[in-house]
Amino acid sequence: MFTAFSTALSALSADMTAVDVVGNNLANLNTPGYKASAVSFRDLVTESLGAGLGETQVGFGTGRPFTTREFTQGAIQSSTGLLDGAIEGDGFFILRDAQDQMLYTRAGNFQVDNLGYLTTMTGAKVEGWMEGAGGTVNSAGPIGDIVVPVGTMKTPIATTNFSMDLNLNSNAVNGAASGTFSTPMQVYDSLGNSHTLTVTFTRTTTANQWTYAVTIPSADLTVAPTAPLATGTIAFDQNGNMLTPPSTTPNVAVPVVGLADGAKDMALNWSLYDAQGAARLTQFAQPSAVSANAQDGSAAASLTSIGIADGGTIVAQYSNGQQLVVAQLALANIRNSSSLIAVGNNNFQGTAVTALPAIGVPETGGRGTVVGGAIESSTVDIATEFTNLIIYQRAYEANARVVTAVDELSQDTINLKR
Predict the structure, then answer these.
(1) Closest CA to 104 of 387, 337, 380
(2) pLDDT at position 134
(3) Which of 63, 218, 324, 327 is the most exposed place for a label (fewest CB within 10 A)?
């Protein structure tokens, strides 16, 4: 009879632990990336009474319950934070704290510190791959701290190639207004200053033939030019397709020498064909017009904003309108994620039984994708937690009643001696 005291007390202790877990879940109802914990009860060893082979067994109550972190997918909520990211699917963001320990989190509300490191709200550094040589991110190398180019000036890039996709009117007449067509092309020198080239096409007296001339304003040069930067003739066949130039090269050399601003001389290439070998110029019975321009230079620019894009890329926005990928977030896939332990601040840490993390780019190797401008909500369900709270409360009250009943029985037993 008196084992009922200890069994009931073990139940009271277990139920209090379960209530604590519910309280912690409800406290983190609005914590980004929080994963709710579930309580698992277990019974203790039983005692066999009498000479039978286990015909009468009495247990010794319940042990301390196990808590299991349920890594289910939380709802993805859009946010206004440029550096917010949510994982849709499996995986964890990888962090490194001040003690150089590797941590994992599902909370993607990041920020940039005063040194340019991408960090969590509590200062842990976010891991990934940085932009390397050639302006590309090598995700095959080791991960490291992500540092964004805060406050830096983007170096100007001198134009080396430009192209124009245009049509020249096949009905144009030499000497008439329709027989001349001009279009501007903006290029950049080594100092980031822009210059406007003008390409002028003139219909010749020969059928399906045009001449071109590339000029630059005299004020842009130290010495006024006496001739165009480049001239030549372009011929078309009877179907309006451009014939291969006599030089059999896809580019027209356009040298710019003696810039007045002190920049380096420019050696421009005008691409007449695209990457697939298709001609960019046509001659059809339509008004002469440009459909697309392109050039590979840019002016100096300052960083205006930085954000996380879909797929986990870190994109820098510059004042000249350019967007460049400067880093890539890494994700870790852990087979037995339930073995991770929470260490606070929405972070988890591996244990002795945790499998080695498989680190890679989002959407590879079973890892989920990263949604930019979003946050994963807590997986706590308030209705479920309230239901569990009522169940644990009733269980506590029931076991407290067992203690009271056993106490009364004990008093009755003692009174038998009187």
Answers:
(1) 337
(2) 62
(3) 218
